[in-house]
Automatic annotation (TrEMBL):
Localization of this protein: Membrane
Superkingdom of origin organism: Eukaryota
Domain (Major facilitator superfamily (MFS) profile): residue spans on this chain: 63-481
Organism (species): Circinella minor
Protein name (Swiss-Prot/TrEMBL): Major facilitator superfamily (MFS) profile domain-containing protein
């Protein structure tokens, strides 16, 4: 099917502004909304700014808003172990330091194993059905954690939680790349990550504190069990709403008007926007792009370094409890910290999009974070005063902004076709996620609280390493050294 100036004007009143959607100065644009095999045009097609503004607003309110909310409950379910631990789960299930860290880390084994298959399923089939379905499933699994009787049952439940949560993060990033332009992408990814990952920490602390204060022993159920039940049911509700809000791709989303659909196609023309190409892909090229390119492994190591920096925030409630604060106050203190990290992430996302720079934003943020981890590690060998602890925690929150930009950068590096982008994002993010969580088993032992000297010095080292890695990656991209290349066959090649 072709979208040209003639068939657009057949469907739109000639006296309206919309007639210029595709035709401008008698320029004809030929679009295939499924295969996107359009020839390069000398003249950029006209896009009505009013319709584009309405389209972007609709995308923000549906796709970005729901994905952010889904990631919000995803992370509340994923990172509620520290909340449950200080609410009595450690005593009820007889969990020591090593067992706690393994219960946290085993999640990422299931998460990593199913990350790539999950993202392939999202790209190959229907994001609007797959993403809400897995949200409902992980809500059910989180509810079932409350029924665990011992450490072994907790391990099984946490592994299954990682399995069903694995498609969301990379799947949502993939979906954003199908709709948004490069100048819009970092802000949306940062809103997604900030709301989903940072505000979840803020509200997770509030929820845990309120449950600890009001539901302990209600109906004979411990407060930590109520935590899993309530947060799981919220996830199920969010998943059900997702079936109503999400769309797939510009060419087949029903809640777009014809004008909005044409604009959506024009905005991403020249990129793969329709059905995934897995039946026609050159798998040899895709695997070479992901496994044999040095950029992939450098990005994995760099993202892993970025993800290390959130460990102070993830253990902040435990540090406060062991410094003499009550469990409820310790949970409540997560709220302003994560709120501040959210603001920082959004500010740097805006400046990154405005300057179209990722590398030097990340390097600067990581250098700043490394200095503060160094200060926290060397002052009294990690046994910091409460005032220095709070200042250091807020300063290292800058790492959250760097993490958001790192994921955005990954999406852009592999944006040569749907196949490479879907698998590339999933592979890089999954492996980068799991590395810090296995290292943390030894470096962030809860028995080291509140000093956590080894954890702080480790974060300092990897933050400095990230500065160097970011500059190296930028240099390789600038020199176009062994970058991913498209292996998708064109219609012309197939007809031969």
């Amino acid at each position: 099917m072709e979208y040209s100036s003639t068939n657009v004007s057949d469907n739109i009143d000639n006296n309206t502004k919309q007639e210029n959607l595709v035709a401008h100065n008698a320029h004809v644009v030929k679009l295939d909304p499924v295969n996107d095999t359009n020839e390069k045009c000398d003249e950029k097609p006209y896009i009505d700014p009013d319709i584009q503004k309405k389209l972007v607003r609709k995308l923000d309110l549906r796709i970005v808003a729901w994905c952010s909310l889904a990631l919000f409950v995803n992370n509340i379910n994923r990172y509620n172990m520290q909340n449950a631990f200080i609410m009595g789960m450690d005593k009820d299930l007889d969990i020591d330091s090593v067992a706690y860290n393994w219960a946290v880390s085993i999640y990422f084994i299931g998460f990593t194993i199913f990350k790539i298959p999950g993202n392939i399923i999202v790209a190959r089939f229907s994001p609007r059905w797959i993403l809400p379905t897995v949200t409902v499933l992980w809500g059910i699994v989180d509810c079932l954690i409350s029924a665990c009787r011992d450490y072994r049952g907790l391990l099984v439940a946490r592994f299954m939680l990682g399995v069903v949560q694995s498609p969301l993060y990379a799947g949502a990033i993939f979906l954003f790349g199908c709709w948004y332009t490069p100048s819009e992408l970092a802000k949306r990814v940062s809103v997604f990550a900030a709301v989903g990952m940072l505000l979840s920490g803020a509200f997770g602390g509030l929820i845990a504190g309120a449950i600890s204060d009001t539901l302990e022993g209600v109906h004979g159920i411990a407060s930590w069990k109520w935590l899993f039940i309530i947060e799981g049911l919220v996830s199920v509700s969010v998943g059900l709403v997702g079936f109503l809000l999400l769309g797939d791709y510009p060419h087949n989303t029903r809640w777009l008007s014809p004008n909005e659909r044409n604009v959506a196609i024009l905005r991403v023309r020249g990129r793969d926007i329709g059905k995934a190409y897995f039946k026609r892909s050159n798998w040899k090229t895709i695997l070479e792009n992901i496994l044999l390119k040095p950029l992939t492994w450098l990005m994995i190591i760099n993202l892993a370094c970025l993800f290390f920096g959130i460990n102070l925030m993830l253990n902040f409630a435990i540090i406060l409890r062991d410094s003499g604060f009550s469990p409820s106050v310790s949970n409540y203190m997560l709220t302003p910290l994560n709120g501040f990290a959210t603001i920082v992430s959004l500010v740097f996302a805006w400046t990154s999009d405005r300057t179209m720079d990722r590398a030097f934003h990340i390097a600067a943020l990581q250098f700043f974070t490394a200095i503060w981890f160094l200060v926290l590690a060397v002052v009294n060998k990690g046994n910091n005063s409460i005032s220095l602890l709070f200042v250091g925690a807020y300063a290292t929150a800058a790492n959250s902004a760097a993490s958001c930009l790192g994921v955005t950068w990954t999406n852009e590096i592999y944006a040569i076709d749907n196949d490479t982008r879907a698998i590339g994002i999933a592979f890089v993010v999954a492996v980068a996620f799991i590395i810090p969580n296995f290292v943390n088993v030894k470096t962030w032992l809860v028995t080291d609280s509140p000093e956590f000297w080894l954890g702080k010095i480790t974060c300092m080292a990897v933050s400095f390493a990230s500065v160097v890695l970011t500059i190296v990656i930028w240099f390789l991209i600038h020199r176009q050294f062994m970058l991913p290349k498209s292996g998708k066959k064109s219609n012309h090649e197939e007809r031969k």
